[in-house]
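Session log. Operator J.P. requested a structure for one protein chain; no other inputs attached. Running the standard single-chain path with token output.
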Amino acid sequence: LEEGMQKGLEEGRQEGIVSGVELEKKNIAQSMKKKGFDISLIMELTGLTKEKILSI
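Structure written below.
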């Protein structure tokens, strides 16, 4: 039981890290977009798709 709980906690941490990284990418893309950076450059630097960038 304890091993299962430990595994669940670790998976939760990993999901939280991934979620935080995605949020930060979106924040960076939003800032770059406001400053007039080209969409293709934002895509290259953040790894986000054109659709995600345009929806921000």
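Operator note: The CA atoms of residues 2 and 8 lie 10 Å apart.
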